Amino acid sequence: MLAVLSPGQGSQKPGFLTPWLDLPGTEARLRWWSALAGVDLVHLGTEADADEIKDTARTQPLLVAAALLAAEHLPMYDVAVTAGHSVGELGAAALAGVLPAEAAITLAGVRGREMAAACALEPTGMAAVLGGDPDEVLAAITAHGLHPANRNGAGQIVAAGALDALDKLAAEPPAKARITRLKVAGAFHTPYMAPAEAALAGVAAGITPAEPARILLSNLDGSAVNHGREMVQRLVRQVTAPVRWDLCMRTLADLGVTGVVELPPAGTLAGLLKRELKATGGPEIVTLNTPDDLPAARDLIARHSGLRGHEPVVQFRVVVSPAAGTFEPTADLAEGADLRTGQVIGHIATRQGLVEVTAHDSGLLTEWLAHHDDPVAPGQPLARIGGQV
């Protein structure tokens, strides 16, 4: 099984889009997207220095544009799973078919501007806590009045909040942990970003999303999302909610992903995956940074898609599990039943409680793919709706 990953803020490098502009149509596409995002993506991706592309308002649409540009040169119909880190989730949602590329770019522009504005309201920041016992690290973050903004796995938790509280955490680090301050404008993915979330929600409400055409993982809890509208709501909520990349990586492992392509600017997510999954070997990974990397990425896709070049099953006609647990189908709901959009067809019993499974489309329940008390992983097919797809 193959996954394509879209990186988040902090992965950008000066000039990283320069080689992509040699491909036909790329510059014109970037100029169109620049009009939507309100920033000059051509300049930012080629001539801008590190300080200029560190600006949140500029970086976020630049990263989404880079991921979408590179993905246009890949056989995405062979890809089963998409996921993104923080703002990269907008790119992942577009690659899964939930958002048009133009909507993803526009939302990234709004998100970046509004988060930058929220950062200016009061002095806040972020710091990476590396190593230490995770429970002790989280306790220390809470004790200092900070928030665990990112849980990236591989022994990395990012604390965010007031600058004086970050200073105190650095002066009193948890046992066997070291603190590294991050060069960011403010406390992303915390309540400090509430004004940005509200502004983004106002724009996102005007979007009509589609249902995911492949398994799409959410930073909120690492689960696969079945419904386009739910994904848009999660993308908005993510502005103030912690990024649970650790849970996304766990889901990739649970799904049995064997091949990963990280889109440009690639390297950060590949490094986290390698460290987190080194005990089990982990998937084969290609970091796609320049057009010269495209042959290796295409080769990996051909070898790991399991589809041998044919069009895949259209996955948006299959209801997948939103979480790991035990499947409990709705009593007396038999194959052949007529379903309506949003109808509850079962639950997943998890350690945190019951999670509803709903039909994302109307049609016939043609086949149960999981049964009562079956253990299921996030993204695992549970039922088929509407006939052969």
UniProtKB/TrEMBL annotation:
Q: What are the Malonyl-CoA:ACP transacylase (MAT) domain coordinates in residue numbering?
A: 5-310
One MF annotation (Gene Ontology) recorded for this entry = [acyl-carrier-protein] S-malonyltransferase activity
Enzyme category, top tier: transferase
EC number(s)? 2.3.1.39
As recorded in UniProt, coiled-coil segments are: none
Per the UniProt record, one Pfam family is Acyl_transf_1
Q: Which reaction does it catalyse?
A: holo-[ACP] + malonyl-CoA = malonyl-[ACP] + CoA
Keywords, A to Z, come to: Acyltransferase, Transferase
Name of this protein: [acyl-carrier-protein] S-malonyltransferase
